[in-house]
Structure formats: structure tokens, C-alpha cells
Design goal:
Layout: H1 3-24, H2 32-69, H3 78-96, H4 116-143, H5 145-157, H6 159-172, H7 177-204, H8 207-236, H9 240-264
Helix pairs in contact: 1-4, 1-5, 1-6, 1-7, 2-5, 2-8, 2-9, 3-4, 3-8, 4-5, 4-6, 4-7, 4-8, 6-7, 8-9
């Protein structure tokens, strides 16, 4: 088995496991209050890290890769920026148009009952987002294994709150442990599928990475700026440390970046 493929499989499985665990920590229910408090900080930490990795790694690498694969139009960045915007709008469409009840990181309380159709629509809308999480990891890794690791950390950090949110929605629809396990497993597997599919596409058609990476940048930017940051702002009004955790997430990116360059650099 190719070393890079094995590494990507490990990344995909770890991300999927985080989704499932995020849903399963809803059981037993007596721990909900404590877990919600912790997840607010994880959410904020992930938001800062994802913003940093998007602006410091994914977007610059998208531009450089586009210029290298399209030397005749290297000064015209219209297409990659259009793809980035497309990734952002695609996520908006699936998460908040097709699945208007979905709010990443927002708990659904037991007394806030929603229909089973709304809950499952939320799961369906999230599948596209999580698929592109896998594409992001694979595309970044095909450019540079170090960048792939940084993107993996970014994806991993928001998977626990994501699984928690999906599990909460399923419970609010009157379902139980089995349905939460199935829903979070489907969400997790979508990321694994994204990793595997794009590994084979990217290794056989290298130019596809130049198109996929800016789309992935748009998806990750949406997750950080439109999903996570609004939740951080909502909770941070009463807990300033939640807002400070965003800055801690940015700082974490630079620490991880330094360590990756130090120990994995060529």
C-alpha cells in the first residue's frame, strides 16, 4: 500500500471516529451540561485554527498551484477565486438552504423537538460539507504532506462539535442511540470517501488538485467564518474566554506549523 494513501486513510478514520464520538458523548445524558461547556471552547479553538490554516496555507497554496499548472494565465486568478466562492456558496446551499435547521455547534435542547425529516435533512445537507473535508485533506496532502497534516488537524478539531450537533438533532427528533450512531457514522464515512476518491482522482489527474483545492478553501472558510464564528460570538458574550479561545486556535496553528516544519521538514 502506498505510504501516502495509508496516511490519508488514517486521517480519514480518525476524523470519522471524532464525528461518532461527538455524537456518542450525549450518552449518558447526565453529562450533557459539562460537555456543552467544554465543547464551546473546542468550537472556538477550532474556529481560530481553521481560519489560520485557510488563510495561511490553503488559499496561498491554491494560488501558487494554479499559477504553476496554468503558466500562460498565471496572473489571472479569476478562476481559482471563483472556485473558492463556489465552495463557500455550495456549503451555504446544502447546510442552510436544503437543511435550514442545521447550526454547527448549536445544541438542540431536549424540549426543542424537531421533526425527523428536519433532522435527517440536516444530516443530508452536512454530507457534502464532510465529503469536501476529506477532499481538503487529500488535495493538501498531494501538494505537501506537511500541509495535509495541518489541514487534517483543522478538520479534526471541529468534528467533535459536529458530531455532537448531529446527535443532538437526532435526539430532538425523538430518536435514540442507534439512530445517533448511524447518523454520525454516515457523516464520518463521507469524509473517508472524500479522502479516498480524491486521492485516486488527484494521483491520476494532477491538474484536478488545482481545481479542488480552492473549492475546499471555500468550504473550510465557510465552516470557520459562517458556522463556527457566529456560534463563538453567541456564547462569547457571556464567557469572554470562549472568544479568547479563537485567538488560542490561531496561536495553535502557528505552534503546529513550527513543529511540523521542524520535524517533518525536508
Amino acid at each position: 500500500m502506498d505510504t501516502l494513501f495509508a496516511q490519508l486513510l488514517v486521517f480519514g478514520v480518525l476524523v470519522a471516529a471524532a464525528n461518532v464520538l461527538g455524537g456518542l458523548i450525549l450518552f449518558p445524558s447526565r453529562h450533557h451540561r459539562e460537555l456543552k461547556r467544554v465543547l464551546k471552547y473546542v468550537l472556538a479553538l477550532g474556529a481560530g485554527y481553521i481560519l489560520a490554516v485557510t488563510f495561511m496555507e490553503i488559499v496561498p497554496k491554491s494560488v501558487l498551484l494554479w499559477q504553476r499548472t496554468n503558466p500562460e494565465t498565471s496572473s489571472n486568478l479569476y478562476v481559482p477565486m471563483l472556485l473558492l466562492l463556489g465552495g463557500y456558496m455550495l456549503t451555504q446551499f446544502f447546510e442552510h438552504t436544503i437543511a435550514p435547521h442545521f447550526h454547527l455547534g448549536e445544541e438542540v435542547h431536549a424540549d426543542h423537538v424537531i421533526s425527523a425529516r428536519s433532522a435527517y435533512t440536516g444530516v443530508g445537507g452536512l454530507l457534502i460539507h464532510t465529503f469536501f473535508d476529506g477532499v481538503s485533506i487529500a488535495a493538501a496532502s498531494l501538494i505537501d504532506v506537511r500541509v495535509g497534516f495541518l489541514v487534517f488537524i483543522a478538520v479534526f478539531l471541529h468534528k467533535f462539535p459536529e458530531g455532537f450537533t448531529i446527535g443532538s438533532m437526532i435526539l430532538a427528533a425523538g430518536k435514540g442511540f442507534r439512530e445517533v450512531l448511524i447518523a454520525t457514522s454516515l457523516i464520518g464515512m463521507a469524509t473517508v470517501v472524500g479522502v479516498v476518491v480524491f486521492y485516486f482522482v488527484g494521483t491520476r489527474a494532477e491538474v484536478s488538485v488545482a481545481y479542488a483545492l480552492p473549492i475546499a478553501a471555500g468550504v473550510t472558510l465557510y465552516v470557520a467564518a459562517s458556522d463556527l464564528i457566529p456560534e463563538v460570538n453567541h456564547h462569547g458574550g457571556k464567557r469572554p474566554l470562549v472568544s479568547f479561545s479563537v485567538f488560542a486556535g490561531v496561536a495553535l496553528f502557528f505552534v503546529v506549523h513550527f513543529l511540523v516544519d521542524r520535524f517533518l521538514g525536508h
